[in-house]
Amino acid sequence: MTVIESDSEGKPLTGYTIRQAWVASENGYDAVDVRIENGRITAIAPQLDPVGTVVDGRDKLLLPGFVNAHTHSSELWQRGMIPPYPLELWLAKLYDFTPADAEQVYLSAIGTAVETLLSGGTTVVDHLTIMPGQELETIGAAVKGYREAGIRAFVGPLIQDQSLPSSIPSGGQPSAYEPYARTTQETLDLMAEAIAQFHRPDEGIYIMMAPTGPQLCSDELFAGCNELSDRHALCRHAHLLESKAQQLLAEEQYGCTAVEYLKRLDFLSPRTSLAHCVWLNESDTQLLAVTKSTVVHNPLSNLRLGSGIAPILKYRQAGVNVAIGCDGSASNDSQDLLEAIKIGSILHNVTDFEYRNWISPRQAVKMAALGGATGLGMQDEIGSLEVGKQADLVLYDLTSLSLLPRTDPIGLLVLGRPVQVVSSAWVAGRQVIADGNLTTVDVNHLRQELFARSQWEFDHDSPTLEALETRYRRVMGLGE
Ligand SMILES: [Zn+2]
Question: How far apart are the CA of 129 and the centre of ligand 1, in A?
């Protein structure tokens, strides 16, 4: 790398000039120079005078960074561990084996950031499981991990005010449930404190209001979330109609669909992103379009948990913004965004014979970048290669074996199986990957920590699952 440290008058220069990288043009690709200064893209042209650190972009593809628009970082500790179960029973198992210390949360945030960055992501949305009694410590640990990794992070503490069994439909046999561990007001007070301590948009750390979903949250909790989100201009995030059981529960509890219910609660907005959205009807889709809410597509998790195939083509045709997420590592079980983008686009070729509606590789990349940014109200700041936007950029090595031979770079990046193809990445103009390696995280040390703090673990008995399985099978019509 050449570093040009001063201009012709001897004034110090900082930033980067990426030279002769391929960028997507209308019908093909152009080779351009891209200048990054003070965290932003300041010039894009066929030839620029180099300033700052010069990065060779030849035989490389430059794309805006993707958004991993829904995950739960601490599930990294359970990846590969939970056998095939549907969402409600899988959740029961997950609840019985949650990480117990803040150091683990810190490490899993770093692990999530590293895998996201190495698969083309520059922003992560962490719907963060918080440890009872150590809520602020949990949030602080994840934030510390993201700051160190240098990824842009939206952290939405996973809050609810109803206990897990209430999320399974009663099937006409209502029962009383234990109250949740925290009151609604205690949860809202906790969130106010989390915002005060950790919400730092200028530093790339954003707290978001992220109730688990209508199946576990009261009207009062939603109202409090809306109030805090309006007061501090925060994004809103929730799970929505991930499973058939949640659709049944909505009918039982609200007498309307869960989307109509969220509309009534005034939760839907241009800064609201909703994970999964598998079981929506046509008028629900219209409500999302009208309120400019975003659907976060988590195709791998939906397959793994048998939740269903979200009707993404219908959403796109109705004008609903769609983003892509990996979902937590216990239901995926990786954080490879390129994999999620591939499956999340070609999956829909089996749902619709009208191939003209299928998602092209270029459209898939746009969903993952600009679609993700839009769901976070960041479409004017990140998500595309434009002068003035923040420099959240990724450079892919087109000489990597998995991206050869030379055909259509974006086509092969999306439809192939790219292995270690990210050469450089920047978040807000800070280079976090150089020559294929993280500049911010010692990945070998991370590997050692993950190894040392875990053990070979196979299937366990799960008391929560045993308590719920009979009712689940009855409600879903599965027999004994
Ligand atoms: Zn989730």
Answer: 10
Q: How far is the CA of 144 from the centre of ligand 1 (A)?
A: 22
- Rounded CA separation 328/77 (Å): 10
The predicted model scores a pTM of 0.95
Tell me the CA–centroid distance for residue 348 and ligand 1, in Å. Answer: 21
Ligand 1 centroid distance, CA of 19 (Å) = 39
**Distance from C-alpha of 134 to C-alpha of 145, rounded to nearest angstrom:** 17
> Which residue in this structure is represented by tokens 């009534």?
264
Distance (Å, rounded) from C-alpha 63 to C-alpha 121? 10
Asked whether 392 and 381 are in contact (CB, 8 A), the reply is no
Give the separation between CA 435 and CA 423, rounded to whole angstroms.
Answer: 5
Residue 151: name the closest of 444, 438, 432 by CA: 432
Cα–Cα distance between 180 and 127 in angstroms, integer? 19
How far, in Å, from the CA of 120 to the mean position of ligand 1?
20
Taken in order of first residue, the domains within the chain and their CATH numbers are 2-64+392-438 (2.30.40.10), 66-375 (3.20.20.140)
CA of 71 relative to ligand 1 center, distance in Å: 6
**How far is the centre of ligand 1, averaged over its atoms, from the C-alpha of 321 (Å)?**
18
230-269: pLDDT as tens digits: 999 999 999 999 998 889 888 888 889 999 999 999 999 9
How far, in Å, is the centroid of ligand 1 from the Cα of 237?
A: 10
